[in-house]
Amino acid sequence: MHGLSTLILGLGLFFLGIQLVGENLRRLSGASFRRAIHRVSERPALAGLTGVGFGALMQSATAVTFILVGMARSGLITARGAAPVILWSNVGLTALAFLVAFDIHPFVAYLVGAAGIFSGMVRQPQWRAAAGVLLGVGLVLFGLESMGAGASPLRQAAWFQHLLAATVDSPGIAFGIGILAAALLQSNTGAAMLIITLAQVGSFSLEQAAVLIYGTNLGAIALRFFLAAGLDAPSRRLVRLEDVFCGWSGVVMAGLFALEAAGVPLVLAGVRAAFAGDIKLELATIFLLSNLLPAVLMAPFLGPVQRWLERRMPGESSADLAQPRFLNDAAIDDPASGIELMGREIARLLGAVRVCPECARVGEDGEPVGDAAFGALATEIERYGSRLAKNTPSEAQAHALHLRRAELSLVRYLDEAVREFNDALAGAAGVSPAGAGRLEAALRDLLGPAAGLAAEPEPAGIEALRARTKRHGEFVRQAVAAAKAESAAPEIAELADAFELVVWMLHRLTKVLARPELARRT
């Protein structure tokens, strides 16, 4: 029992350390950090490197994913920019496995002691947060050492012997146990480190430990389903992207293991040849490869995967959109609350403005598909604003209501402009798919953040979107030039004009969102 208690103590210290690192990194993540993430996310290679570094620091792809979801909702990063960061963060989190492959006990002792003393002495928030990060890293490493000390006695336990026998008899069972371990610990990193620790003391062979590690990536999917339950569709798509990667990782590594079992020398043969029996380094490399190989194979297809997720998770149906979600008659007598609820409903309306060639199709009544629901909700919001105006609010409230109604008008005009773009897109796609696709992707990258910023205004995000939507700004110039370089057809020129009109409407909308009266919502 002493070994089990030491193992549990080590696990507790490990997760406490990860929590400290995550919380204090968030405190250090000020506006300048967020702006830096925004800049690098627009360059795929830098976004990938950022993901590796972010994963190494956070030691949790789930934590990285939800941080980026929050940034995407605030308009500080696009879904396209967040995707490679999420993908490559899975590679970065394997760094810890290599760190603990060496004897770092003296370093760990000094790190925990110095970080604890420093944290108790400093008073400035930024320095305390930095000390908290170092203390968290030290606790992670100390927890792993404690896990190793407690793992050795477990080899003699009867229940553990039965578990070992099951994994020897069936790789499928071992794969499932890896999934279960990560699900119980809510961390594939924690599960992998536990497996490596047990293998180091002889509890698992290299083959057993490898299959267990291959299963760990799938263990956190259930947790992310739970955490993403209340998110909007664009945010859920980012979370599902991480789940797709984890499922893909399981498929790739299970396939490689099956080939190796059939006699083809692959991962296991390679690490044996490279490290000659050093099981810690062998398994650390296997953990790395179980994330690196799937990431390399998936990276070229991030765009198609995201478009597939958009088709699978399109957001609200037309029937749902037509019904107000936030407008409340009880708030009519409280103008401040009513104006706030009106803003939330407008943000929801903006989220329904979509770029899609098929949106150019018309229904049996000759009207564009989805227009009726959009118009019904817009009308309800306008009526609600008229009722609020009759309550003779204060001058400040009257001005805020005026801005809110201006925001609604701009969203309606924006919807008309996007529908014109969709009409032009349907024609241009048949002439130059690549040119049309460039403008379609560029507009998607602008509309997504706009909806998030309308729901949760963030000054830095609004300013970033405002800069990108300047009619003759760099982003717009590059998108139009790239599309026209693909084709000189008049359909592409017409699409470019429609694109610039939408961008101009978005720029006007950012000016309204930037007003101090609308900058903060409860």
Q: Please give the share of residues in helix.
A: over 70%
Largest sheet composition? none
Number of domains: 2
Assess the beta-strand content as a share of residues. Answer: under 5%
- Rg estimate, integer Å: 27 Å
Continuous helix count: 25
> What is the N-to-C order of secondary-structure elements (H for helix, E for strand)?
HHHHHHHHHHHHHHHHHHHHHHHHH
**For the terminal residues, how far apart are their CA atoms?**
51 Å
Shape: globular
Structural class: mainly alpha
Give the averaged pLDDT, no decimals.
80
Number of strands: 0
Detail the poorly predicted runs.
Answer: 362-366
What's this, in brief?
This protein has 522 residues and is mostly helical.
Task: Describe the structure in your own words.
The protein is mainly alpha-helical and 522 residues long. It has two domains: 2-310, no CATH class; 316-518, no CATH class. It has 25 helices and no strands. Helix 4 (61-73) packs antiparallel against helix 5, helix 9 crosses helix 10 and helix 21 runs antiparallel to helix 22 (433-455). The radius of gyration is 27 Å and the shape is globular. The two termini are 51 Å apart. The model is unreliable at 362-366 (pLDDT under 50).
